[in-house]
């Protein structure tokens, strides 16, 4: 009976802990007071190709003669730099957040279309030379939604791992109590 009570208490603590962490993530992504424009302001700059281009500092293929996968072409195709010292060949779509690995001969627009056919940027921006204000807001809102979705997935996975760890610890505890 005592172990059951401890388990229920642990689940409640896990639930409240994850709710608190989830709220913190959402509050960082979306203004909980309903001021969506403030949150969109963080994501709107990514609509501007020059903003995306500025994320590529010293892109590795800009130095490669004849490379098709330049920082300019990546930015035009909706990508931002996602490089790390361990992975200097990656860039992510600023809107669907899909990260891809690149080779010098890759065509960023074609790769984006083939790997992310449901990306809103692929659907509207790659086909239009000029975006409307509405297109810009749709892209920023889509980025915000994908950003929140990714954070919530991570929170869910963290919670699941935490729950598994709590169950394992409780199992060990019940074995020692027997």
SSE blueprint and pairings:
Elements: H1 2-29, H2 36-43, H3 49-54, H4 71-76, E1 79-81, E2 90-93, E3 99-101, H5 108-115, H6 120-125, H7 133-177
Antiparallel strand pairs: 1-2, 2-3
Question: How would you briefly describe this protein structure?
Answer:
With 178 residues, the chain is mainly alpha-helical. Helices cover 60% and strands 6% of the residues. It has a three-stranded antiparallel sheet with strand order 1-2-3.
Structure description:
With 178 residues, this protein is mainly alpha-helical. The chain has a domain at 47-163: Inhibitor Of Apoptosis Protein (2mihbC-IAP-1), Chain A, CATH 1.10.1170.10. The chain contains 7 helices and 3 strands. It has a 3-stranded antiparallel beta sheet with strand order 1-2-3. A hairpin with an 8-residue loop joins strand 1 and strand 2. Helix 1 runs antiparallel to helix 7 and helix 2 packs across helix 7 (133-177). The longest helix is centred in the C-terminal third of the chain and has 45 residues, at 133-177. The radius of gyration is 22 Å and the shape is elongated. The chain starts with a helix and ends with a helix. The model is unreliable at 1-34 (pLDDT under 50). InterPro entries: Baculoviral_IAP, BIR_rpt.
Radius of gyration: 22 Å
Give helix % range: 55-70%
- Provide the β-strand percentage band: 5-15%
Instruction: Characterize the main sheet.
Output: 3 strands, antiparallel
Quaternary status: single chain
Write the CATH fold name of the domain at 47-163.
Inhibitor Of Apoptosis Protein (2mihbC-IAP-1), Chain A
So what's the overall shape?
A: elongated
Number of helices, counting only DSSP H or I runs of 4 residues or more: 7
Q: pLDDT below 50 for ≥5 consecutive residues: which ranges?
A: 1-34
InterPro entries: Baculoviral_IAP (IPR051190), BIR_rpt (IPR001370)
Pfam families: BIR
Keywords: Metal-binding, Zinc
GO molecular function: metal ion binding
């Amino acid at each position: 009976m005592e172990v059951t009570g401890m388990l229920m208490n642990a689940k409640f603590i896990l639930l409240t802990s994850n709710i608190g962490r989830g709220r913190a993530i959402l509050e960082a992504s979306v203004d909980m007071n309903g001021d969506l424009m403030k949150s969109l302001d963080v994501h709107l700059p990514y609509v501007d190709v020059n903003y995306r281009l500025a994320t590529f500092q010293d892109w590795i293929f800009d130095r490669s003669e004849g490379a098709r996968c330049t920082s300019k072409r990546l930015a035009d195709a909706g990508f931002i730099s996602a490089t790390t010292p361990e992975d200097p060949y990656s860039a992510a779509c600023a809107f669907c957040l899909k990260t891809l690995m690149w080779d010098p001969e890759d065509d960023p627009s074609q790769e984006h279309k083939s790997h992310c056919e449901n990306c809103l940027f692929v659907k509207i921006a790659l086909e239009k030379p000029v975006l409307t204000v509405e297109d810009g807001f749709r892209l920023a809102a889509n980025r915000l939604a994908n950003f929140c979705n990714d954070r919530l997935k991570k929170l869910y996975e963290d919670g699941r791992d935490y729950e598994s760890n709590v169950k394992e610890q409780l199992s060990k505890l019940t074995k020692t109590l027997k």
